[in-house]
Design goal:
The chain is an alpha+beta fold. Helices cover 29% and strands 18% of the residues. A hairpin with a 4-residue loop joins β2 and β3.
Length: 265
């Protein structure tokens, strides 16, 4: 299967929240008590039972006010920090580009939650499992659109092959910049390239997103430098021990040599 992508064009989003309701319904996630966070936003962040929500920011300029609305969910990064941080090999990437969690392998350690630069995965303290958007991989692998895309009535969400959709995204960005000069395409290169990418009307910071998201330095040092070097060093030491034992066995020397002798005859 070729790599897929969901393009969220925030210039077309009306903030109806139908996508979040569809996510709840398809994944059989229970309703949660909400409260007004700001403007029309009713969720502050993700929870084990809420994998997607809509953020609202009121952007004021000298002449007018306009909404900055964004459907928030896992970005399904090409180089995901959560996968790198996982200690139980519960997180993997599919050929289509989605990052998924195997609940049977997840031990609820929370390292994925701690190291995600977007704060996406959340651990259920009772189940001791991490949860996040699956990308509706069960639908995608059966040639269906993710449920949020299927539900969107304004065309703000599109689904397709990543290469083709990225070309369309750049063309659309040029059009949007005519009205919103600060508009950017977010997700083409960030974190290796995202399966969920956005046309934003303003800078990423205006939407509460990092402009240059990266995995924490400590995680990168541990997984990419310290651990590989340590493994090589440990492997070298183990090999030396094995070869030493084999050498002694071939010589018939199973203990320390006697004084003045090379070992047993």
């Amino acid at each position: 299967m070729t790599r897929k992508m969901v393009l969220a064009d925030t210039s077309k989003c009306t903030g109806c929240k139908a996508c979040t309701v569809a996510c709840k319904e398809w994944n059989q996630l229970p309703a949660e008590k909400t409260q007004l966070v700001k403007s029309y936003q009713s969720m502050r962040t993700f929870t084990p039972d809420t994998w997607s929500f809509v953020t609202f920011d009121e952007n004021y300029s000298i002449s007018q006010m306009h909404w900055l609305m964004r459907k928030a969910q896992c970005f399904h990064c090409a180089d995901p920090a959560c996968l790198k941080a996982c200690t139980s090999k519960a997180i993997s990437k599919t050929e289509s580009g989605y990052v998924v969690i195997d609940k049977d392998l997840c031990i609820g350690c929370g390292y994925c939650a701690e190291n995600c630069p977007f704060g996406v995965p959340k651990v259920d303290d009772q189940q001791k499992k991490a949860f996040k958007c699956t990308g509706c991989i069960d639908r995608v692998e059966n040639n269906l659109k993710p449920m949020c895309v299927q539900t969107c009535q304004t065309g703000a969400l599109e689904f397709g092959e990543r290469d083709n959709l990225m070309v369309k995204a750049k063309k659309r960005l040029a059009e949007v910049k005519g009205k919103y000069p600060k508009a950017v395409l977010y997700g083409e290169k960030e974190m290796g390239g995202m399966t969920h990418s956005y046309i934003l009307l303003d800078s990423p910071e205006a939407y509460g997103l990092p402009s240059h998201p990266v995995a924490p330095l400590a995680l990168t040092l541990w997984k990419d430098i310290i651990r590989p070097v340590g493994t090589v060093a440990m492997g070298g030491a183990a090999a030396a021990v094995v070869f030493g034992i084999l050498g002694n066995a071939l010589r018939g020397n199973y203990g320390p040599p006697e004084s003045g002798k090379g070992g047993k005859e």
